[in-house]
TrEMBL record, chains A, B:
The name this protein goes by in its record: Enoyl reductase (ER) domain-containing protein
Record InterPro entries: ADH-like_C, ADH_N_2, ER, GroES-like_sf, MDR_fam, NAD(P)-bd_dom_sf
Coiled coil spans: none
Keyword DNA repair: no
Lineage: Bacteria, Pseudomonadati, Pseudomonadota, Alphaproteobacteria, Sphingomonadales
């Protein structure tokens, strides 16, 4: 029997989620029954899609007041009732915001601690990295000569998208982000050729100047005006990967999108990306990205808090677009 | 020296073009100088894009009052000053609404009268057929198993799109058109499995019932509500070819399009099609379609008027969506 802390939703979410929308609670976990595992959580990933899910606008279920907040984690098995998993194994999967979790073994996937830094395995080497790989390799098929634009370029997906584009041979990689500080990260740490702060009054002119040959590939995490503007600057036959809609995460309605005429005139190829379609590839992509990290070809930055109780504070910051780097909650030590 | 009739724009177009917006005029054509041809026009194609061009909303130049109306034609050389073209050769190209045309030989392409019926060579075996082929073969890559939806299905592009989809092995082909009469053409003559009249109050329910397995390929000639509705019924990984925006041809503004969320959720692949990109393939596609016509695999219907002076009347009908079949003006006899 284990007592685990967990973060639950305190009240219905009607605006951008804040820390006070959540509260710490406890639950008692039984010992694992056959086929179950008891896992101590080491790292929790905080992700923007949870903000959508909390308002019933994501393909995952909507948490109601009193419910556990969903979240991907990485942890270590402390008790196993499944022959394929041993105490001490590291695993990842949906854990929710808690410090221990009793789960069916089939819901967990073993991770190799040596493949990439453990926290990166739920960050740039995890699903954000898989998203970036799927976008640049499978959908956009980036090649030398490509002029790649990435929105939310300071985020764990966007930052990795641009770096993978560069690794795949893109000729020019430009980011869009929401502050000077984020842009500094994008160019200095992630090595983009340029970064446009979309809060600047003349950002559209800056963008056109930064990509004088046009945009051959646009990875969109935002929608709205950023998508419109990128489309205006798209080269003929440009590829557009639609991967997120940050501009809508807190909107009450889904606003209309660009007039289809722009897709026709530009002969655009527009592709919707859902990372869940690529989960089979996760181990290979984690290995690939781990190697790039080890070789110094791919950089990542974390915005990390210590302790499960700090998750709501970091989540509020993430939802307000104020965090820099991948939002990670360090719930427990890597080894005990 | 030849006196040619021509149709010019009488006044600025501010609403749906009507016959009275045009007038018949004359021009005197010199004898061909070196490298020029004098061509008598046999058939003129009337096309919806001209309606857009007249209002400055097409990628081709906007005709101003007094200007010749643009249009693709097919004709026969009556005088040649180019060694590659002989009197009696049949040629096609941009001719404008007139009965004779003096053109640089390089602007004309010879056509083989035996490849397909001559009028079909500026109809289903011409650019509309090339558009349909590019859409179904090159962009959507239709295969057995595909569930194909086509808007403007009674038109020369849409009707051919559905028939080529069937030839390529599509499992189900459904059309959308704007009247019972058009729908009868689509199912009876073009052999679609079903046709939805979008003027029916319950057309959206009819569409969902007609495609119970979802839409794997949508060829869109219309935009607006038809595009929105097709996207709602799209299968995951559906392909959408954007080829026209009939819903906007007469609009004062370009309305917004579907929210990008639908493209993401459906993992859609959306492609813009401009037929000019495929012009090199025209002779091969004309031959292919001519053979399908000869073999009874591909049907076409013409809405034909006799005489250049009738072009404005037929064009008004086309712009009002009241014509059935490819709009063709028979300007002169096929042989003299």
């Amino acid at each position: 029997m284990t007592v685990s802390g967990k973060i639950i939703l305190r009240r219905e979410i009607t605006a951008s989620p804040v820390a006070a929308d959540f509260e710490l609670a406890e639950e008692v976990l039984a010992d694992p029954a056959a086929g179950e595992l008891l896992v101590r959580v080491i790292y929790l990933s905080l992700d923007p899609y949870v903000g959508s899910a909390l308002r019933g606008r994501h393909m995952t279920p909507q948490p109601l007041p009193g419910d556990l907040i969903p979240g991907k984690g990485i942890g270590q098995i402390v008790a196993s009732a499944d022959p394929d998993f041993a105490v001490g194994d590291y695993v990842t999967g949906e854990m929710g915001w808690r410090d221990h979790v009793l789960v069916p073994a089939g819901d967990m996937r073993k991770v190799d601690k040596e493949m990439a830094p453990l926290s990166a395995q739920i960050g740039v080497a995890g699903m954000p990295g898989l998203t970036a790989w799927a976008s640049m390799h499978h959908l956009a098929d980036v090649r030398p000569g490509d002029q790649v634009l990435v929105s939310s370029a300071a985020g764990p997906v966007g930052g990795t998208v641009g770096q993978i584009a560069r690794i795949l041979g893109a000729t020019r990689v430009v980011g869009i982000a929401g502050s000077e500080e984020k842009c500094a990260l994008v160019t200095n740490s992630y090595g983009f050729d340029a970064c446009i702060n979309y809060r600047d009054a003349d950002w559209k002119e800056q963008l056109a100047s930064a990509m004088p040959e046009g945009i051959s590939v646009y990875h969109d995490n935002v929608g709205g005006e950023l998508l419109d503007t990128a489309l205006q600057n798209l080269s003929d036959y440009g590829r557009v990967v639609l991967c997120g809609l940050a501009s809508q995460y807190q909107a009450d309605e889904r606003p209309a999108g660009p007039n289809p005429a722009i897709f026709i005139v530009k002969r655009a190829k527009v592709m919707g990306l859902v990372v869940y379609d690529f989960l089979e590839e996760q181990p290979n992509v984690t290995r690939k990205i781990g190697q790039w990290i080890a070789d110094g070809k791919l950089a990542y930055v974390e915005d990390r808090v210590e302790g499960l109780d700090q998750a709501p504070v970091l989540f509020e910051k993430l939802m307000a677009g104020q965090n820099i780097g991948k939002a990670i909650v360090a719930v427990g030590p890597e080894t005990i």
